[in-house]
Design a protein that fits this description.
six-stranded antiparallel sheet; alpha+beta
């Protein structure tokens, strides 16, 4: 807006210069105060000055336009750089997310929903066990029959890893950790009540149902 105002100002100055030149010529003609040769000299002189002023003003407009174009190009470059930085940050965050145990376990849980019972993964869940010389809990192998979202809460159904037809009751509130063991791949574990794990699992389940 500032550049447009300057351009308009320069154009107005040029127009006023032209009008002043026309007015002077008209007054000289009206009062016939100069002889023929003097008249021509004065007219030529005024014409040169007016032309110089107009050309100079339009040259200023060209400079202003170039500056404006340069500023637009610089702003565009800054915006493109900011967008690139945002995309790079997003890519890094996505990479970190997908590298986390919470994401890997949640992904495995949702992947097996379309698999036959016999071929589903065995997960290990940590449950408290009193009076043992451990950390106070032990792992039990289970298969996950299904995980669904009911009233914005996760509803789990487990089954016996040796017998897919047999449900395996587990008090969800007692589960401390969930673990995924796959030979030659990775051994990942996370807290069963980890908010990130729950959020990621809900998201993947919602994507699966779309």
């Amino acid at each position: 807006m500032k550049h447009i105002g300057i351009i308009i100002e320069v154009l107005v100055e040029s127009l006023l210069c032209i009008l002043a030149f026309i007015l002077i010529v008209w007054l000289l003609t009206l009062f016939d105060c100069l002889s023929g040769k003097q008249y021509e000299i004065v007219i030529t002189f005024l014409g040169v000055i007016a032309t110089f002023v107009v050309i100079n003003n339009f040259h200023q407009i060209g400079i202003i336009e170039q500056k404006h174009i340069k500023q637009i190009a610089e702003q565009k470059h800054l915006v493109e750089q900011e967008l690139k930085d945002i995309k790079d940050s997003q890519s890094m965050l996505i990479h970190l997310l997908k590298s986390s145990p919470e994401y890997k376990i949640a992904k495995r849980i949702t992947e097996q929903h379309k698999m036959d019972i016999q071929h589903r993964f065995v997960f290990k869940i940590a449950i408290p066990v009193p009076n043992v010389h451990t950390d106070g809990f032990m792992y039990k192998g289970v298969k996950i029959k299904s995980v669904t979202i009911v009233d914005n809460e996760l509803e789990w159904l487990f089954m016996n890893p040796q017998n897919g037809d047999e449900d395996y009751f587990v008090d969800i509130s007692t589960i401390l950790y969930i673990k995924m063991e796959e030979i030659l791949e990775y051994d990942e574990e996370c807290s069963f009540k980890n908010p990130n794990f729950i959020t990621i699992l809900k998201y993947l389940l919602s994507q699966e149902n779309e």
